Amino acid sequence: MKKILFGICGLLCAYVAQAQKQPYQYVKPIIGTEKMGHTYPGATVPFGAVQLSPETDTLSYEQNGKYNGDVYKYCAGYQYSDKTIVGFSHTHFSGTGHSDLGDFLIMPTTGKLQLNPGTANEPQSGYRSAFSHDTEVSEANYYKVKLTDHQITAEMTTSARVGFHQYTFPKSDQSHIILDLISGIYNYGDKNVWTYLRVVNDTLVTGYRQTSGWARTRTVYFAMTFSKPIASYGQKNYDPKQVYRGFWGKFDQTKDFPEMAGRKIRAYFDFKTTEGEKIKIKFALSPVSQENALENMRAEIPGWDFEKVKRDGQQAWNKELNKIAVNTLNEDDKVNFYTAMYHTFINPTLYTDVNGAYRGLDQNNHQAKGFDNYSTFSLWDTYRALHPLFNIIQQKRNGDMVSSMMAHYDQSSLKMLPVWSNSANDNWCMSGYHSVSVIADAIIKGNYTGDASAALDACVTTAKHRSYEGIGEYMDKGYVASESNGNSVSNTLEYAYDDWCIAQLAKKLNNTAVYNEFIKRSENWKNVYDAKSGFMRPRLKSGTFREKFDVLSTNGQGFIEGNTWNYSLYVPHNPEAMIALRGGKKHFATHLDSLFTMHLPDEFFAETEDITREGIIGNYVHGNEPAHHAAYLYNYTTTPWKTQDRVRMILKKMYKPSSDGLGGNDDCGQMSAWFIFSSLGFYPMAPGSLNYELGSPAVINATLNLENGKTFKVTTKNQSDKNVYVSQVILNGAILKRRSITHEEIMKGGEIQFIMSAKPNTKAL
Amino acid sequence: MKKILFGICGLLCAYVAQAQKQPYQYVKPIIGTEKMGHTYPGATVPFGAVQLSPETDTLSYEQNGKYNGDVYKYCAGYQYSDKTIVGFSHTHFSGTGHSDLGDFLIMPTTGKLQLNPGTANEPQSGYRSAFSHDTEVSEANYYKVKLTDHQITAEMTTSARVGFHQYTFPKSDQSHIILDLISGIYNYGDKNVWTYLRVVNDTLVTGYRQTSGWARTRTVYFAMTFSKPIASYGQKNYDPKQVYRGFWGKFDQTKDFPEMAGRKIRAYFDFKTTEGEKIKIKFALSPVSQENALENMRAEIPGWDFEKVKRDGQQAWNKELNKIAVNTLNEDDKVNFYTAMYHTFINPTLYTDVNGAYRGLDQNNHQAKGFDNYSTFSLWDTYRALHPLFNIIQQKRNGDMVSSMMAHYDQSSLKMLPVWSNSANDNWCMSGYHSVSVIADAIIKGNYTGDASAALDACVTTAKHRSYEGIGEYMDKGYVASESNGNSVSNTLEYAYDDWCIAQLAKKLNNTAVYNEFIKRSENWKNVYDAKSGFMRPRLKSGTFREKFDVLSTNGQGFIEGNTWNYSLYVPHNPEAMIALRGGKKHFATHLDSLFTMHLPDEFFAETEDITREGIIGNYVHGNEPAHHAAYLYNYTTTPWKTQDRVRMILKKMYKPSSDGLGGNDDCGQMSAWFIFSSLGFYPMAPGSLNYELGSPAVINATLNLENGKTFKVTTKNQSDKNVYVSQVILNGAILKRRSITHEEIMKGGEIQFIMSAKPNTKAL
């Protein structure tokens, strides 16, 4: 009886606990912080401009200016296996494979002032501190850790534009807050251009930092305020070229001198603290000015209530995460699901002040009228599934993101839409001009309220920028020649897809001329298909295919982040034609099987970037993006049920609720967006199309709470980890006789039910 | 008959010519461009933000970072003795002894593109060109020269914020305009921080330049437009650390790439030109933004009419110069007079955009409400005579200058009024806190419409900034001790005078407490007077005077830019007491005679800064400022007429209408302001007082056209170069029984007549 009662209680309590547990409580920002995930464990709000997170090392650059693999590890500033924390900085990319940011590193210390960071092996040699994961709490919008060397508990939370630090000090006459203006994240050397700092009064400091990193000409302004008056302060300038010349020498500028400026400055602020005394810091950012940073701070966090700011941010997360209410087979799946959603709602990041001002690509300040301006567009990654996900559950924001891209275009002296937009700069990372995919998809799906015709013009102009990565040649010859650039095949394939997007947009806008031109261009993928080898292959200017060719290799083969096994699948807009050309449905099914089951020798794995060994299945590279649609291609073969199997396998293998749970860079949410779509049972094979390929849902059920007030439900019958096959799909009560659903079907609300089974339904459509 | 007719015609024509010749036509900007004058020959309008002038060398910094005497020569970018021109840049100080500016050097060339400047000995080795003074025209707001190596005639003129270039090219398929963003003027090494440039379209380029020179954190924005479309363009980046990394390599950024950014960039623009074809460039500056630069350009020079802009600027000069209509004994005197006036109306310089925006000391952008904001305050120099001159003939502007100082104070985290304000920075050059003199003088003379009480507060707070150059010790001990800083005696003397100014202002505002405090402080000069030596002398913390003491030496003696012979005279606010303490009127008269007649040995002359041998008379150093009032001190002795003789001698010896006509740095107009006052027959011994010491006018007559609509006339009888003595002064018809006039007497209009004589009137008061 006791046992039975206990059993009942156990079930009940679990039920009650689960009922009371809110989505944000399933978020584990620590997922992906080990090895290649390149996510960060710190605090941020959805799409927040501030990402306040610990740095576990300061290998922000190496001395000889060469690429350093160790630095690559710190794209997000944090590696789970590290034993020390250097400090907490305010800006971080989530999941990138190149690096920048890491602005305004703050570190609280006690004891003798040390202004150098020290080394990981000897943290006592500098201001850094050892820490243990046992003391670490990493939640949505909250991070906490004990800095053991200084006996300080560090806590942080944020609003959209303000980082909020709370440090609990021991009793000490020598408590310090260090503001390291040298520290930063960057793969390729010293990026500091200039820093300026002004102690306005004994609680307020403002200034800015200019860097030339991945973003070449970038300035971040700040306003920093302390909850307790500064007792004294000072700086050390590490630039040997910068001396206090001439009449500057009138002042001892190292101590209590309120104007600091230079290329390599570390500042510090001294306090006396009692046991357990909390010193709080609000640190606001602006892309425009010190004043705007201060205005952002006053607007977003007027008081000093840390718990309220934390709570508000977590409720903001909850609101966003609740857009998909999900039930899963187990807690881990739910953690994975909401953490993936969390990771999809980090980038792009807000790049507008509360008053609407932002810095544009032209380095002028602009006023965002009728939209919030965003930055951090990792478009080669995110056009695939992240922006399509937004077109369902972040419609307003995705419209603003298109407006941001259009503003970028208007400010571009190159007259190009963004390729990889970072803080009022473009770094042109990766291939293609995929902003056209995002724009077409958003307009076709009705999420952009701006001038669609102007958007089409911007797409066309970008796609005709002859001097950009072989576009001229592509326009003349129908392909980028191998001699012209190292990514010639990737470029040709991606341009062809992007051109198809432009054609779809033109069609939507009844622009026949543009449609005809670009639908023709969209067939250019055929020009790099080598029937002899059966693969997409580098082609010479002469028209013949290149002799030198290795189907397993990535480097020097005309591809980027994927060998031809993966890239040859890349005709998302016309898989039927691609499959027909490659030997037909049956042959292609076997080919896909090989992809997932063959062995990629180590020498070739080493060439894939940004992923761990766990990031591949056979020769299918999920940790990179080019073949993200590959599993869904089975839908077009004689063995369509294999999509269901593969998708469930990828979901299980590639996403785990642990620090090393991501097999590759999360890539600003693209990896996570793949997870969300695939967990729900459908996937946007070709953004720009209104169709979603059906796969195999991993959830028990999910309710999509749409911005139009409607709900779209995904339900399952017989769901289990073994029942990965879909024997029947019922849409709004009727059996669905296709392997896709449409955007309209989702957005008008309703229910899609998947009948699950351990065996494939080989008879189903 | 013929001869007679010719003679009559000669006289008549000369008369007509003189009658038609306007004041601006007497201006010779070339005066002071040789040796130590440090003026520039280029184009500017009164108080203009743009000073467009040739650079004759690019020794803008030397490689080893040490001070370089050769660089010092180029404070204004131009030395008359040089044989080559490197280019034309848009910002120049007039007459300073430290350097900065030289922004945006433009050079037109033909033939093979050369992006390095080349050397003076081999101009063909780079883009520079030989030139001859024979082809040079240097007028108020107009400069012209033939660049012989390129067969290009260069002409330039300006509006307040825009430089207007006009280059007449030969026929060439290879005509270039080089924009050198590396070139700049600075004594102490490489000051470039960052430059950004954007080719907006084929006639418009915008961008900015950041430097850390004499102004530590300075940015100048620009907008540049060509009258003819650019055929092609490019850049070379000279920073070995700045490579086109990663995806930047997608573009050939050296050619026709519209976004340039870096620390060391030279850009060029190519054209094809026909014989005699003019390419015009409008180059606008802004302290705030690229957009404001463009707005400044559109507002000030909407079209392409070079002659109109030149004419408008020259008429603007005429308007200002007409504030004193003068008749002189000869043409040279008139040239000297109007060139001196020209030099007094160059600084401070406008630092506000047409829309009222400017960058403040706090590096925030501000809106100037109700005033124009100014920069370039060389206050240690200009408080003496330049701002007092403005209080008579630039009342409105001087009020705006006080407003600018108050804005500086409000933006100062140090809570200090400006010492030497340059482009939103203070370099704290020289000693004292002389902004209080300028402010007190302006308020006492009724030229500041702002909050006088707030101004007094700012003066008091500045004067009590204990950590600034010994002020704390000065407040505690009544003097700055020799151990405390190298300028201890100068500081004590100048603080005492400044304190007297604060007392005068307090009196004006009926603030008895401040008056009492500062009138007491104003007597501190007595604390550094050593009765034993009869000189002001460094005093130790202990109270005893320093043993080591050399009355002829400047270096290491506690003085700055003046030995104790000069500095011991520095009690402008209480000469009677100073003279009494130093042995009385008769003894002091002899002492003054010695000053003007003794020989300063070469070893000590070498220690005086910023002047040529011609810049001294005996041991009286006119080329520096501390003794600028010395000649007028005779008025307080038993031989008052010697003021008249000395003043006329200084006017003749120190000011000549030639390139080497200035014996020392013009110091932002102070040397020239001394000339104007002294030529008119009166001088402000102690700004803050309403009195002007009478000297000996050098003009035949002069009419001061005051802003209040009244005129004040200075007339003479028996004026000649020999009749330097004043036998009688008649003010508004009545004999004047004092050796001074008051500000009120001038400002209410009227006439002062000086009866001149070859012999002193030893009986006169």
UniProtKB/TrEMBL annotation, chains A, B:
Signal peptide: 1-19
Domain Glycosyl hydrolase family: 292-757
Listed cofactors: Ca(2+)
InterPro entries the UniProt entry points to: 6-hairpin_glycosidase_sf, GH-type_carb-bd, GH92_a_mannosidase_put, GH92_N, Glyco_hydro_92, PNGase
Gene Ontology molecular function, alphabetical: carbohydrate binding; peptide-N4-(N-acetyl-beta-glucosaminyl)asparagine amidase activity
Domain (Glycosyl hydrolase family 92 N-terminal): residue spans on this chain: 26-286
NCBIfam families recorded: aman2_put (TIGR01180)
Subunit structure: Monomer.
Protein name: Putative alpha-1,2-mannosidase
The keyword Calcium appears for this protein: yes
GO biological process: carbohydrate metabolic process; glycoprotein catabolic process
